[in-house]
Amino acid sequence: MVEQFVGKWKMTSSDNFDEYMKAVGAGFAARQMANLAKPSLSIAMDDQGFISMKAVTTFKTLEIKFKLDEEFDETTADDRKVRTTMSLMDNKLIQKQTWEGHTTIIEREIQDSKMIATCSMNDVVAVRTYENDA
Q: Residue ranges of the Cytosolic fatty-acid binding proteins domain (predicted)?
């Protein structure tokens, strides 16, 4: 159920994110900004089944709009051009990004009223925790 993800979320912790950003190929400057940023994430769903995710930091605002299981083009915060598919499996919102022969997966799940985002690229895993910011 996507509804459990709908709302406003504020990042409260981030573990191993610099290593993850290195693994996806982000440059030094992009990694430095990403490590300083504490994004707010808003997730909403409209009547037609479109879901929007908006990430806001002091550096940049990014928004994607999608339907589950439909591939779309996305430009990431570090300016990678990727093909993205969002799906819902086992109560997890799974974001799969592919570009130039690479794949990364971001799994978001609700645990104890927190949203845990696990970012995986090859054998590198980062975990970012968000709390409801109602």
A: 7-24
